[in-house]
């Protein structure tokens, strides 16, 4: 304090302002306490929600009265306990101590006053009977009657908390919130339900590796024997873990599979004289998870919708699920997962906030238009150097952001291919086969065969039907068509004597469609990643219940005409003799697709 009596920051005003420190809800505030527990080596952390019932306008109402977080960690000495209750102080402020979850020295007091007006702490290192006690009282601070953290004193842990605890170790800490004036959730069950989802995701690695168990309990403050308890299960947004909180059948097995040749991609960043690793992992939904109608409306699909975004992990603990990388209007974005892991040494690079809920520099990169930045032949290295010259703190992350954007583009195409294959097979199966474009094209081809025209595919028409069906099905799978859709399409082709098959898949080249001769049939695979697909095919195949019947019929007729046009080209290729003419026809198709891409991308 200065000689004139004015401190730089008046304590009572600063603490009031700190109540609005950006914790999203009680679950994130509670996570700060659990961070301290895990940092202290706890193997068991207990969330204890005490309820009281009162009468309001002649009706009974049950509300949470106090919340306790108890652990069996190493406990705190008197000086450590006092330091832990100070704002901006702590045991991990020095760079050499910043290797775990903790760092900023704001967690316990800041998270507590964001939810309540009084926080009490008991901690012991040689038996609970030797517990030390201190506290913060917001009302006393605001009245300027509490100007410093009280010196810890010996004080017995209240019986109520000892009764509801599972076990009390030789060492540990109990934090109790009371006067809960800012608690969003009023009932214990609601707190536990919402907290399990968030906390299970934050600490999924610790829970999955059995490094810590998190017990969540609600009980009657006047009758503590009446309690409800459960243990938090891992909530993995990559859906690669087993035995998680995901609804059945994916509670006991992974719902997604890894994407990419390597299980993780590692980027190295030099900062403050050290080399730090940033690890990126990708996953996408298994074909099984997306089979059938409306998988997104099933319990596990709704679960995935709540885990939308890029999971940012620091020191094995999730900071946040960053939704800025996802498209909220595209329901398919629930079916991919991305995890970015970095060490505490890169907090400044990522822009980690002091409540450990956000990495704002990384988030800003999600909205960068990489195509615009790379115009004029510039490389990503050129962009990085330019940002470095401008002393932009995001420069070390630009390559990571570029890699994530490119990978998500590929994964989205893959997911689109999963569904369009199923949808295409379903539409064809239920349509009048005799009047389908495939049937009409087959009749025309037979007439041409009668006239003496032959194609490469004609040679395998003499093979047994079962063998032909197997060849066609495998070819469709090789193209990227989901297995179930490939089986339906191959069976329909053979059973109805069709010559042509339409499929849809991500071909990852410039052609609008591919043509293959397999099993006596001509397979035309539309490239779902080509701009012509959403502009010409997908929009025509969309059915809107509100459309008049005539408009629906007209759209189907237009689609049939488009398919006949493409099948005419396919037969043209099929009738070309081996050699230069066949090669020229194939090259022309690719060149046409490349030009079509150029034209359609400008619309």
Percentage of residues in helical conformation? 25-40%
Tell me what the CATH architecture of the largest domain is.
Answer: 2-Layer Sandwich
Tell me the structural class: alpha+beta
The radius of gyration computed from the alpha-carbon positions, rounded to a whole number of angstroms, is 31 Å
Discrete helix count: 20
> Segments where pLDDT lies below 50 for 5+ residues?
none
What is the mean pLDDT? 85
> What name does CATH use for the topology of the largest domain?
Heat Shock Protein 90
What does this structure look like?
The protein is α+β, with helices and mostly antiparallel strands and 603 residues long. The chain has 3 domains: 11-231, 2-Layer Sandwich (Heat Shock Protein 90); 256-411, no CATH class; 431-600, no CATH class. It contains 20 helices and 17 strands. Strands 5-4-3-6-2-1-7-8 form an 8-stranded mixed beta sheet. The mean pLDDT is 85.
Summary of the model, kept short:
It is built from 20 helices and 17 strands.
Explain the layout of strands and helices.
Blueprint: H1 11-18, H2 26-39, E1 44-56, E2 59-71, H3 78-84, H4 107-113, E3 118-124, E4 132-137, H5 138-142, E5 153-154, H6 159-164, E6 172-178, H7 188-202, H8 204-208, E7 213-220, E8 223-231, E9 256-258, E10 265-271, E11 274-285, H9 299-305, E12 310-314, E13 317-322, E14 336-342, H10 347-350, H11 360-364, H12 370-373, H13 380-389, H14 398-430, H15 437-450, H16 465-479, H17 483-495, E15 500-505, E16 513-518, E17 521-527, H18 532-541, H19 549-574, H20 580-600
Helix pairs in contact: 2-4, 2-7, 14-17, 15-19, 16-17
């Amino acid at each position: 304090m200065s000689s004139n009596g004015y401190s730089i920051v008046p304590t009572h005003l600063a603490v009031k302002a700190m109540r609005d420190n950006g914790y999203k809800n009680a679950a994130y505030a509670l996570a700060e306490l659990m961070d301290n527990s895990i940092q202290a080596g706890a193997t068991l952390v207990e969330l204890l929600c005490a309820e009281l019932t009162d009468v309001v306008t002649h009706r009974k109402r049950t509300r949470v009265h106090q919340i306790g977080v108890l652990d069996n960690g190493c406990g705190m000495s008197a000086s450590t306990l006092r330091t832990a209750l100070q704002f901006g102080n702590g045991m991990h402020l020095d760079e050499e101590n910043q290797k775990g979850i903790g760092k900023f020295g704001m967690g316990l007091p800041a998270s507590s006053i964001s939810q309540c007006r009084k926080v009490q702490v008991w901690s012991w290192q040689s038996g609970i009977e030797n517990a030390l006690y201190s506290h913060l009282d917001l009302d006393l601070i605001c009245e300027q009657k509490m100007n410093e953290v009280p010196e810890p004193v010996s004080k017995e842990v209240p019986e109520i908390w000892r009764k509801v605890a599972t076990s009390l170790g030789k060492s540990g800490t109990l934090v109790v919130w009371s006067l809960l004036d800012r608690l969003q959730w009023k009932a214990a069950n609601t707190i536990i339900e919402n907290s399990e989802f968030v906390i299970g995701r934050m600490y999924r690695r610790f829970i999955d590796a059995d490094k810590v168990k998190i017990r969540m309990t609600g009980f009657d403050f006047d009758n503590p024997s009446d309690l409800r308890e459960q243990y938090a299960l891992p909530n993995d947004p990559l859906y690669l873990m087993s035995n998680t909180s995901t609804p059945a059948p994916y509670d006991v097995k992974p719902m997604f599979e890894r994407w990419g040749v390597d299980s993780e991609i590692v980027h190295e960043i030099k900062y403050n004289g050290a080399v730090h690793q940033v690890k990126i992992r990708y996953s996408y939904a298994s074909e099984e998870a997306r089979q059938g109608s409306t998988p997104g409306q099933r319990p596990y699909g709704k679960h995935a919708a709540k885990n939308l975004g890029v999971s940012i992990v620091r020191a094995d603990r999730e900071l946040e699920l960053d939704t800025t990388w996802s498209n909220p209007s595209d329901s398919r974005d629930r079916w991919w997962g991305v995890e970015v892991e970095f060490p505490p040494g890169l907090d400044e690079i990522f822009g980690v906030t002091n409540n450990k809920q956000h990495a704002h520099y990384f988030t800003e990169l999600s909205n960068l238009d990489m195509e615009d930045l790379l115009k004029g032949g510039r490389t990503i290295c050129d962009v990085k150097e330019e940002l470095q010259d401008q002393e932009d703190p995001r420069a070390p992350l630009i390559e990571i952001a570029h890699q994530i954007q490119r990978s998500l583009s590929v994964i989205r195409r893959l997911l689109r291919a999963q569904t369009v294959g199923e949808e295409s097979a379903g539409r064809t199966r239920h349509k009048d086969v005799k009047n389908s474009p495939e049937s009409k094209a087959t009749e025309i081809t037979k007439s041409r065969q009668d006239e003496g025209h032959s194609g490469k595919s004609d040679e395998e028409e003499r093979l047994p039907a079962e063998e032909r069906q197997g060849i066609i099905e495998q070819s469709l799978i090789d193209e990227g068509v989901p297995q179930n859709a490939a089986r339906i399409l191959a069976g329909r082709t053979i059973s109805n004597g069709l010559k042509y098959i339409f499929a849809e898949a991500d071909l990852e080249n410039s052609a609008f469609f591919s043509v293959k001769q397999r099993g006596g049939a001509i397979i035309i695979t539309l490239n779902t990643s080509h701009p012509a697909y959403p502009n010409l095919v997908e929009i025509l195949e969309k059915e809107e219940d509100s459309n008049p019947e005539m408009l629906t019929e007209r759209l189907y007729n237009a689609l049939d005409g488009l398919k006949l046009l493409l099948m005419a080209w396919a037969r043209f290729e099929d009738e070309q003799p081996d050699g230069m003419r066949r090669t020229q026809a194939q090259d022309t198709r690719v060149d046409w697709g490349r030009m079509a891409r150029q034209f359609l991308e400008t619309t």
